[in-house]
């Protein structure tokens, strides 16, 4: 099957919101009056971001999910995306599964595939998403103020726990690995929460590299410091519920590493004035997304983490890259 047949068969779909979709030199999008376009790209590379034998349907889902997660963190509503694909061969069974996973999530969020590029080469997937947000209302990393509360959505650390097991660094019971692997391979972008946080959150980002490292980006751009309570973040990993129900022992240090520095969570970390506490809870309820207050923004620079004993912990687990050195 040639490149053009492949595109027509798997990636060309009826145009809905876009002015022009797949098939011409450029796609055309018309932003609505008073809206700004929010644009983000994320690339997934075989061997670096996913295992060569990963389920293609899940890979299609994840490739779009990580991009939608960026729109969520900006409080933007998904509109459309482009897909640049480098494929080692035209394996139709693989491509149709990949497209199914990708387009199912796209339909859930009414995000149209409007164009892209297809070439032979090592497996590599680059998606650019376009979203819209009322002018001036995008959630930025730079708005956190001393006294603001720090929040995270959902659960943290399970994706990293699964990765550690798949890399052979740790052993997990099969049922637990299956549960954690779901989080690694099929993350849920928190789009509805991002939209509900417009006008409430003072800053936001999505947790892709690990909570502490990502929070640090907010601190840097907002010129503030923070205190995070690990006694609140540590139990957020779903594996801790598994440990509570079974005889499986969850090492505290591993639990802390995964939740504080795990990566691949695609949850939102955001700040909001303490006076908006009830509004944040309402935004979480309205979007059916759990939200947990995990600390506060300080005027004093630096990131302080309260340990299990109530004293500040020493941690070098700023992000994924540092995890191995901890
Ligand atoms: P060009 O030669 O102008 O780069 P192409 O021949 O690469 O155009 O692509 C033809 C059309 O198919 C374009 O509209 C392009 O956006 C679209 N397209 C190519 N690859 C993909 C893909 N993987 N997903 C969606 N659309 C694609
Ligand atoms: Mg091209």
Describe this structure in words.
With 326 residues, the chain is of the alpha+beta class. Helix content is 37%, strand content 23%. The protein has twelve helices and ten strands. Strands 6-8-5-9-7-10 form a six-stranded mixed β-sheet, sandwiched between helices. A four-stranded mixed β-sheet has the order 1-4-2-3. Helix 3 links the parallel strand 2 (77-87) and strand 3. 45% of the residues are buried. The mean pLDDT is 94. Adenosine-5'-diphosphate binds next to helix 1, strand 2 and strand 3. The site of adenosine-5'-diphosphate (ADP) has 13 residues, from helix 1, strand 2 and strand 3.
Q: Count of helical segments? A: 12
CATH topology of the largest domain: Phosphoribosyl-aminoimidazole Synthetase, Chain A, domain 2
- Strand proportion, as a percent range, falls in 15-25%
Shape: globular
- Count every beta strand, where a strand is a DSSP E run of 2 or more residues: 10
**Termini Cα gap:** 49 Å
**What class do helices, strands and sheet pairing give?**
alpha+beta
Calculate the mean pLDDT score and round it.
94
* Number of structural domains: 2
Q: From the alpha-carbon coordinates, what is the Rg to the nearest angstrom?
A: 20 Å
CATH class of the largest domain: Alpha Beta
The helicity comes to 25-40%
Bound molecules: adenosine-5'-diphosphate, magnesium ion
The SSE string, one letter per element, is HEHEHEEEHHHEHEHHHEHEEH
Low-confidence stretches: none
CATH architecture of the largest domain: Alpha-Beta Complex
The spatial strand order of the largest sheet comes to 6-8-5-9-7-10
CATH homology superfamily of the largest domain: PurM-like C-terminal domain
**Major sheet attributes:** 6 strands, mixed
Family: Belongs to the thiamine-monophosphate kinase family.
Domain PurM-like N-terminal: 23-133
Domain PurM-like C-terminal: 145-306
Binding site for ATP: 116-117, 141, 208
């Amino acid at each position: 099957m040639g490149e053009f047949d492949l595109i027509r068969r798997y990636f060309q779909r009826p145009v809905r919101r876009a002015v022009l979709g797949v098939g011409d030199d450029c796609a055309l999008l018309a932003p609505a009056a008073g809206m700004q376009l929010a644009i983000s790209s994320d690339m997934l590379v075989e061997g670096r971001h996913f295992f060569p034998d990963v389920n293609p349907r899940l890979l299609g889902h994840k490739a779009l999910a990580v991009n939608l997660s960026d729109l969520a963190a900006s409080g933007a509503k998904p509109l459309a995306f482009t897909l640049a694909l480098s494929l080692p061969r035209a394996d139709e069974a693989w491509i149709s599964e990949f497209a199914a996973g990708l387009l199912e999530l796209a339909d859930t969020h009414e995000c149209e595939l409007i164009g892209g590029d297809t070439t032979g080469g090592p497996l590599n997937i680059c998606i650019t998403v376009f979203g819209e947000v009322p002018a001036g209302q995008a959630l930025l990393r730079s708005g956190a103020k001393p006294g603001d509360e720090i929040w995270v959505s959902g659960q943290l650390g399970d994706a990293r726990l699964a990765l550690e097991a798949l890399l052979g660094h740790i052993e997990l019971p099969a049922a637990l690995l299956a549960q954690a692997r779901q989080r690694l391979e099929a993350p849920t972008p928190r789009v509805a929460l991002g939209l509900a946080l417009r006008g409430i959150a003072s800053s936001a980002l999505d947790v892709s590299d690990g909570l502490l490292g990502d929070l640090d980006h907010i601190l840097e751009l907002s010129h503030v410091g923070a205190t995070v309570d690990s006694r609140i973040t540590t139990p957020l990993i779903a594996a801790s519920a598994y440990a509570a129900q079974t005889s499986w022992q969850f090492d505290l240090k591993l639990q802390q590493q995964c939740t504080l520095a795990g990566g691949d969570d695609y949850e939102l970390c955001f700040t909001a004035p303490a006076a908006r506490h009830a509004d944040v809870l309402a935004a979480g309820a309205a979007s059916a997304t759990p939200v947990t207050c995990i600390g506060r923004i300080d005027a004093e620079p630096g990131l302080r983490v309260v340990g299990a004993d109530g004293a500040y912990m020493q941690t070098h687990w700023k992000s994924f890259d540092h995890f191995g050195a901890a």
